[in-house]
Specification:
The structure is a homodimer of 250-residue chains. Chain A folds into 2 domains: 157 residues, CofE-like (60s Ribosomal Protein L30, Chain: A, 2-Layer Sandwich), CATH 3.30.1330; 70 residues, CofE-like fold, CATH 3.90.1660.10. The termini of chain A are far apart. In chain A, β8 and β9 form a beta hairpin. Chain A is of the alpha+beta class and 250 residues long. In chain A, the strands form 4 sheets. In chain A, strands 1-12-2-8-9 form a 5-stranded mixed sheet. A 3-stranded antiparallel sheet of chain A has the order 4-5-6. In chain A, strands 3-7 form a two-stranded antiparallel ribbon. At the A-B interface, β1, β9, β11 and α6 of A face β1, β9, β11 and α6 of B. β1 of chain A pairs antiparallel with β1 of chain B.
Amino acid sequence: MAPQVQIIGVAGMPEIRPGDDLAALILEAARGQGMDVEDGDVLVVTQKIVSKAEGRLVDLRQVEPSARAQEMAARTGKDARLLEVILRESQRIVRQERGVIICETKHGFVCANAGVDTSNVGGGVVSLLPEKPDESAERIRAVLAERAGVSIAVIISDTFGRPWREGHTNVAIGVAGMSPVKDYVGQTDPHGYVLRVSTMAVADELAAAAELVMEKLSRVPVAIVRGFDYERAEGSARGLIRPRERDLFR
Amino acid sequence: MAPQVQIIGVAGMPEIRPGDDLAALILEAARGQGMDVEDGDVLVVTQKIVSKAEGRLVDLRQVEPSARAQEMAARTGKDARLLEVILRESQRIVRQERGVIICETKHGFVCANAGVDTSNVGGGVVSLLPEKPDESAERIRAVLAERAGVSIAVIISDTFGRPWREGHTNVAIGVAGMSPVKDYVGQTDPHGYVLRVSTMAVADELAAAAELVMEKLSRVPVAIVRGFDYERAEGSARGLIRPRERDLFR
């Protein structure tokens, strides 16, 4: 039988506010469209609603830019308060050129603006990445697993650019309940050849797949991926971060 | 109604040989598992079977390594004949460090070993990327569209690594019948904010999604993605290559 995977968007979520119980709202929205969370599902949840529920929002009007942020603002024409927030979220600036700021976040992710985002928030407020996205994923996983009585995995996704290729893709920034990678190292192909360097970043591929039903403009912030046979594990997105000393491009 | 996308692996393909009619074999295998190609489907086909059907295979025993390849072999301990093939497929070496050779292929893709691959081929033979992957995709698309009487899109996928993040993901190296990107630039989010930098690389996300049903070891070299609302267009994977002069990491 041919393998088959379904990706189902969860629509009908309300506008998320700080303190909201995301797991409960996701379950309610899923049931509202006549479906339940099932054993073996992978729930992909966009960072934006996680950040909102966790109150990871900053009102730029209350930000006092540092000298470094002001200097960067003078050089780039960008908002010094936004730059200040980006600097606070970064452990290092990887590149700063042509209006693009590529940062290494405190978590170790390399992305534009340290994940600080002005879209889908409103009125001078920006959103930050969740402080501990693995723990965010685990909280949602634990509550849903208990309330729906099933074993599932949860991925927190965000939209990142990448070198060499145009366009953004969704990647995993938080993982709970599954191994973020699938390892073929040491296994043999049908010709008996050993597959030496084949570790697939399945959590990133699941995040990318989920994006196909998450329209940026149509409020589908959650997707259920059903039918994918993942390796159950505690899980963490740290396994997707290449250590700086082994990275040829930092 | 919530958006929903299905990813269905096409199993039961025979071992592909040079000259094989891939489109016919894909249609036969799909029908053999009781399904047809439907209007609006995206077919994701792994590079390996395209390269085999197109005879993009090189027997290393017939390769005469150049002085440059021999010098690289002496320095790295790698097979000089393999290095020769990699050099022939490259327009430029982007990085060469710690046993990794990141190349810019003649097409402009940046990837390890210029896409030259020893796995799933057999006996001293390596596979090269298709010479013109967009044309490979278009040939499959045109034949399938005609024989099944439907309008579809075709993506040729390959497994690439990436900077900063561990693990490989599938990306699109050839595209026909759809725009490889979805552009949100200039559209407004539900708060009325303009989404300034949101071009999603949907062809790469489709390739990644397809990988979820393509087990490297179980001969599922084709997947049908059903239910994704793509923008119909001639299509090309060139739109996914960031021009060198706009790339901060080359």
